[in-house]
Amino acid sequence: MGLTFVTDPVSVSTPATSANLGPGFDALGLALTFYDDLTARVTESGYTVEVSGQGAGELPSDESHLVVRAMLATFDELGERPPGLAVTCVNRIPQARGMGSSSAAIVGGVQLARGLVEGGLELIDDAAALRIAARIEGHPDNVAPCLLGGFTVAWTEPGGARAVRLTPAEGVRPTVFVPSERGYTATARAALPAEVPHRDAAFNAGRAALLTHALTSDPSLLFPATEDRLHQGYRAAGMPGTASLVAALRSVGVAAVVSGAGPTVLALTEVPGDFHPGAHWHSEVLGVDGVGAVVKGGMVEHAERGPVAAGRKS
């Protein structure tokens, strides 16, 4: 028996995310209260994408768009594609800045596809949705918080990606510092060595474990918990402005890290009011999104996940 596609449009708000969080390389991620809004409906033929905001005039408007690619991968998982799709993207998450714009597109596409199929949320549950999104993205650290909300710990098994969602403590107050220039994950990864000293690996294992405790139970420990020796130092030469800002924030006691692969900087504790990052940086105080990318509209009846510290309310 074939799928039944719903006739009404569906929509989803996909949160920005920050991954790594210092020592949690390719494993830890945080959903932020900053969103792209995506809408899709089934059409008689063809694939069209309308983009406004970030990436408008740059991103493709056909089936090569990442949202559509993720939708088609999800439909393929279900065994049938619709005859056509019309997608609208209102993008606010900065592109190529280390705030999970690609993960937001991928997770948004997976969620839209689930919502456009009658019973799609049951046919593909959140665990399967995570596996699809991580397979497209290549690693689960950003797609996990985007899908689930909150603070996530993600890992990959032979069967695919998995993640657990934890609730951040009330004292976690994210601030992002976004530069005008872009950065690219592939370039940042190319700067990493094939091997690291055992002592550095042991150092990061301890800090990552401490960070999980600090984020969920004791934010007073966030400063030591965000120390890293696996990736930020190796990437510093390629992002000198980012490295300088992280150092400046940490010099005044702020738990600051590179957001994802950069160049955005994330502060997890309150930034002094008299701190000035410089003219090339835009700063914004955000909350932690506790909902993730939840599908709305169509025939979907959804129960939102519980909100967490300063996150979006149900």
From TrEMBL:
<keyword id="KW-0808">Transferase</keyword>
<comment type="pathway">
    <text>Amino-acid biosynthesis; L-threonine biosynthesis; L-threonine from L-aspartate: step 4/5.</text>
</comment>
<dbReference type="InterPro" id="IPR020568">
    <property type="entry name" value="Ribosomal_Su5_D2-typ_SF"/>
</dbReference>
<dbReference type="GO" id="GO:0016301">
    <property type="term" value="F:kinase activity"/>
</dbReference>
<dbReference type="InterPro" id="IPR014721">
    <property type="entry name" value="Ribsml_uS5_D2-typ_fold_subgr"/>
</dbReference>
<dbReference type="Pfam" id="PF08544">
    <property type="entry name" value="GHMP_kinases_C"/>
</dbReference>
<dbReference type="InterPro" id="IPR006203">
    <property type="entry name" value="GHMP_knse_ATP-bd_CS"/>
</dbReference>
<dbReference type="InterPro" id="IPR013750">
    <property type="entry name" value="GHMP_kinase_C_dom"/>
</dbReference>
<protein>
    <recommendedName>
        <fullName>Homoserine kinase</fullName>
        <ecNumber>2.7.1.39</ecNumber>
    </recommendedName>
</protein>
<keyword id="KW-0791">Threonine biosynthesis</keyword>
<keyword id="KW-0067">ATP-binding</keyword>
<feature type="domain" description="GHMP kinase N-terminal">
    <location>
        <begin position="66"/>
        <end position="150"/>
    </location>
</feature>
<keyword id="KW-0418">Kinase</keyword>
<comment type="similarity">
    <text>Belongs to the GHMP kinase family. Homoserine kinase subfamily.</text>
</comment>
<feature type="domain" description="GHMP kinase C-terminal">
    <location>
        <begin position="228"/>
        <end position="269"/>
    </location>
</feature>
<dbReference type="InterPro" id="IPR006204">
    <property type="entry name" value="GHMP_kinase_N_dom"/>
</dbReference>
<keyword id="KW-0028">Amino-acid biosynthesis</keyword>
<keyword id="KW-0547">Nucleotide-binding</keyword>
<dbReference type="Pfam" id="PF00288">
    <property type="entry name" value="GHMP_kinases_N"/>
</dbReference>
<comment type="function">
    <text>Catalyzes the ATP-dependent phosphorylation of L-homoserine to L-homoserine phosphate.</text>
</comment>
<dbReference type="InterPro" id="IPR000870">
    <property type="entry name" value="Homoserine_kinase"/>
</dbReference>
<feature type="binding site">
    <location>
        <begin position="94"/>
        <end position="104"/>
    </location>
    <ligand>
        <name>ATP</name>
    </ligand>
</feature>
<keyword id="KW-0963">Cytoplasm</keyword>
<dbReference type="InterPro" id="IPR036554">
    <property type="entry name" value="GHMP_kinase_C_sf"/>
</dbReference>
